[in-house]
Write a structure and sequence with these properties.
12 helices, six-stranded parallel sheet, Rossmann fold, about 325 residues, 2 domains, alpha/beta
Length: about 325
């Protein structure tokens, strides 16, 4: 394995998936310190390079677009010309092993999805989805690396904390909303949470990205009487990229967010994070650590967590997201 100089890694998904995959890249770099790492990912997740120096090159593959098969063919062509020594893919599709074999790369690693994967891959790793996603991804390199990286780590220095501060990032990706995957509380509950924190004389900072424009505007409309509070700062639009957001999260003493990419940034910045969880499985998305606390409704839904495990869209009742502002503040204040 000493001659591994050029590694292709394929990981499709949103920016949260790329952050959860970072520990795998970190361990790869520890094992092959002189190697070049090329990451094939969806265009929507290109911001991952704002958080790490580990990735030497990117290949964009729009697998969610209308020309996905053409995009995959371009990936194959690029992989064949890239002189890669090794390819690793996180995909759970049964045809991933065929894709990797067609690249012509000699060393191929992926999940065991059946007979084809066992025949075509150098090593087909058991896919265990019932664990923190970082650990699930990291298993891919268990046959080639003894390195262990348990949490996302960023190429961003530790920040000085703003005293008594609570940062709130209410948004989720617009793509998830468009697909009918509702994963967070409504704007009025976020606004009431801010009001309660201000009454407790917390320094409250509100942040959000381009996808969060509507929810931020609704929150600000409700907060008409609190906008000029000396302890309230609206940082919407002031974080221009993921590094800016990570720095801001790093400055906060506490961070309240949805089940979304900023939550994973909170873990990576080692800021005490409180995340709203409804239909998704917190055990798969956050580490077993004091760094992050899930905030969940006290409902009696027997199907929860259901999203992805039992269904691809959320139900209409959403009892799992009936969380009050008082419940949120009480959890943060514990």
């Amino acid at each position: 394995m000493d001659n591994i100089q050029n590694i292709l890694v394929i990981n499709f998904g949103g920016i949260g998936d790329e952050i959860l995959f970072l520990p795998t890249l970190i361990s790869l770099k520890k094992t092959f310190p002189n190697s070049k790492i090329t990451l094939a990912l969806e265009p929507r997740s290109k911001g991952i390079v704002d958080l790490t120096w580990l990735i030497d090159d990117l290949i964009f593959v729009d697998v969610k677009g209308k020309e996905k098969y053409s995009e995959l063919l371009k990936l194959l062509s690029t992989a064949k010309k890239g002189n890669f020594d090794m390819v690793i893919s996180s995909g759970g599709n049964k045809l991933i092993s065929v894709l990797l074999a067609l690249t012509g790369i000699k060393k191929r690693y992926g999940y065991n999805t059946g007979l084809l994967s066992r025949l075509l891959l150098t090593n087909a790793v058991v896919l265990n989805k019932n664990q923190y996603a970082v650990n699930m991804y990291h298993q891919l390199i268990a046959p080639i690396s003894n390195a262990q990286t348990f949490l996302p780590e960023f190429s961003i220095e530790e920040q000085e904390k703003i005293p008594n501060s609570v940062l709130i990032h209410p948004g989720v990706s617009k793509l998830s909303v468009q697909k009918g995957m509702i994963k967070t509380i409504d704007a009025p509950v976020w606004a009431d949470t801010i009001k309660l924190l201000l009454k407790k004389e917390k320094h409250v900072i509100l942040a959000g990205g381009p996808d969060d424009k509507e929810v931020i505007e609704e929150i600000m409309e409700i907060l008409a009487d609190e906008i000029n509070d000396k302890n309230f700062d609206n940082y919407y639009g002031k974080t221009k990229n993921l590094k800016d957001l990570a720095v801001l999260i790093g400055k906060a003493e506490k961070f309240i967010c949805s089940d979304s990419a900023p939550m994973h940034i909170g873990v990576g910045m080692k800021t005490k994070t409180y995340a709203i969880f409804g239909p998704t499985d917190d055990k798969m998305l956050i580490p077993d650590s004091d760094l992050v606390t899930p905030i969940k409704a006290k409902d009696n839904c027997q199907l929860k967590p259901c999203l992805w495990a039992r269904r691809q869209t959320t139900c209409t009742g959403l009892d799992c997201l009936k969380i009050s502002a008082q419940d949120i503040v009480d959890t943060v204040e514990k």
